[in-house]
């Protein structure tokens, strides 16, 4: 298994959920974080975990440039696994250029929770969601709807609906040749979430997310997980 962080960059995020490059954010107030999808190569396929902000530079999606840097091509991605539907996790699926909208991974299967989708539709006034982009994805991508609370997507991939950050937030395990990559997405986005046991008010159910982190930390030590950190500015992969 090969794990490739695909970092968009480091950002300051305002309370209106606008993302500004950290080096260009002087005078603004907000949270500092990276956005960092992950590309995982297994023996059988290439998997993308969430998709980032959908940034484009010189007409080329940033997520494509990051994939090219790994030696792979965007067309190599066979499965895209979405933890939840906040815009900083899904907008990288779409190229929203002036020439019109296109899918960045038109041949890949996109796995998402139907219940999370229904929740997102009820939040049209919430700036964390970009329902216009979400609608385009649903209408044009190869969607694989998920309704179960846990299960296997292949012999290598399993998932669990945990709630916490959002009501139907889900996490993923990818296992191959004795290795386990764990993606906790926004329930475990940085190393600080393990260092400081806090029920975050920004989560839908902060206590539930905190309790899950306690269990994951114990299992990660026992089973030698590689923990993938979506929002950590300093460390992409944590091994306890």
Q: How many alpha or pi helices?
A: 6
The portion of residues forming beta strands comes to 25-35%
Gap from first CA to last CA: 18 Å
Instruction: Tell how many strands the DSSP assignment holds.
Output: 19
Class computed from helices, strands and strand pairing: alpha+beta
**C-alpha Rg (nearest Å):** 17 Å
Strand order in the largest sheet: 1-5-6-9-12-13
Mean pLDDT rating: 96
Element string (H = helix, E = strand): EEEEEEEEHEHEEEHHEEEEEHHEE
Give the overall form: globular
Mind summarizing the main beta sheet?
6 strands, mixed
Low-pLDDT parts are: none
Helicity range = 10-25%
Report on the architecture of this protein.
The protein is α+β, with helices and mostly antiparallel strands. It contains 6 helices and 19 strands. The protein has helices spanning 62-68, 87-90, 114-121, 131-140, 192-195, 206-223; strands at residues 2-5, 9-13, 19-21, 31-35, 38-41, 46-49, 56-57, 60-61, 77-81, 94-97, 100-103, 109-113, 142-146, 150-152, 157-161, 170-176, 179-183, 225-228, 237-238. Strands 1-5-6-9-12-13 form a 6-stranded mixed β-sheet. It has a 6-stranded mixed β-sheet with strand order 14-15-16-17-18-19. It has a 3-stranded antiparallel β-sheet with strand order 3-2-4, with no helix packed on it. Strand 15 (157-161) and strand 16 (170-176) form a beta hairpin. The longest helix has 18 residues, at 206-223. The protein starts with a strand and ends with a strand. The model has no long low-confidence stretch (mean pLDDT 96).
